[in-house]
Amino acid sequence: MTAGLPVSRLDSLEKGRLASTFVELCRIESPSRSERACAERVRSELAALGVGVQEDDAGAHTGSDCGNLLARIPASGPDGRERPQAPRSVLLCAHLDTVPLQAPVEPVLVDGGWENAGEGILGADNKAAVAVLLALARHIRREGAPVDVELLFTVAEEISLAGARAFDASRLRSDFGYVFDHATPIGEVIVGSPTHYRVQASLRGAAAHAGIRPEDGRSAILAASSAIASMRLGRLDEDTTANVGTVTGGTAINVVPEHCTITGEVRSLVPERAEEAVAEMVDRVHEAANLPDCDCDVDMSVQRTFSGYRLSPADTPVRVAFAALRQCGYEPEPVRSGGGSDANALITQGFPTVNLANGTERPHEPGERVSVVALEGMFDVALALLAQAAVSAADEAR
Known about the structure:
It contains 10 helices and 18 strands. It has helices spanning about 10-25, 35-50, 60, 125-145, 160-165, 220-230, 270-290, 315-325, 340-350, 370-395; strands spanning about 55, 70-75, 90-95, 105-110, 115, 150-155, 175-180, 190-195, 195-205, 235, 240-250, 260-270, 295-305, 310, 335, 355, 360, 370. Strands 1, 2, 3, 6, 7, 8, 14, 15 and 16 form a 9-stranded mixed sheet that branches. The protein has a 5-stranded antiparallel sheet with strand order 10-11-12-9-13. Strands 4-5-18-17 form a 4-stranded antiparallel sheet. A hairpin with a 7-residue loop joins β17 (about 360) and β18 (about 370). The two termini are about 20 Å apart.
């Protein structure tokens, strides 16, 4: 622990409020592009605290029914008086959307952790972080904060970070920020994240009656399956992965399929390796389409959806994160991840951001879970980040 710094201690009332907020948020269905109800719950909570919320036009760019929400809470003392010259401003970010629900969400407490009573996701990714940020807002409006705080709630994160990519980071006043969106034990600090490509191939052959004149048809599904079978998928090396996630095509079992579309992705911590893997995937599609038994036309689409990054332990936001974690009793562990987060989108725009582990488990799966200890621990870390950011600013000013 760092001497002289306040340590957040949620009292029983705050703990209960944090848990009830989390449960309420999880019950609000908010799959990507349908975040409005969840956003209104966040807005109403902040409005009750006297915190204004701005909504951007990300919905028009992402197809969501809602834009990103940005709120600002000025630094203040325990007496509630604002500090006109706060030493620093810090952004905290969470996303409002979830992956599609397989079942209604009814959170239940099992062995010290929240789970869905049904056979579907819980939504802790990222409702746990949303609940923590609301709890933090309540706390600092009552107790004050040593730095200015910005809260960003994004939409469509699960669709290749679409909301954060549509957000104009130049609106931010903060020096740096933190995202709570990595499903590993609290203490891990994501210092490396991959570049990500979305690859789509639409193949067109020729339709024909499958039982009367199949020789007149050219099967787009055969071409697509041949392409997939020839691809190297899974983990290509320690830094690179490739996957084909969806295959759609055909109209009926008695028709040689004229159309088929496959969609995949490539991720790599080494940008050049990502480019090579994408090129290889594209080549395999063209080769399969040109096979004598296929002879299909191809329309390829390759999109670099977000860029990777590498952070140094010497970077100020990383140092602040390490100090905050230690203040809360966690041993910081820098890790490289194969996943992306809103941090990727913000860093690409030049805004320094660190993604922190949030203690959730099994995201995107039935059986998704977050322990009560992890939920409360996230709050402790969020509050400690503000304290350590102020300490860091004071150290830099000396």
